Amino acid sequence: MGCRHDSGHSQREQGGRETLEVLVASVVTMKQLLEAGVHFGHRTRRWNPKMRQYIFTERSGIHIIDLHQTMTRINEYYEMVRRLVAEGGTVLFVGTKRQAQGTVEQEATRCGMPYIHNRWLGGTLTNWATIKQRIDYLNRQERRKSNGEFQSLPKIEQLVIDRELAKLNRRIGGIKTLTAMPNLIFVIDTQREELAVKESNKIGIPLIAVADTNSDPDEITYVIPGNDDAIRAVKLITRIIADAVEEGRRFREVEMVETGQVSDDELAELEQYLGPSTLAKLQGMEEEGQEGEASELAVPAASDSEEETTGAVAQADQSQTGEEAPPEQAEPEQTETEPVSEEG
Question: 288 lies in a domain?
Answer without folding.
Answer: no
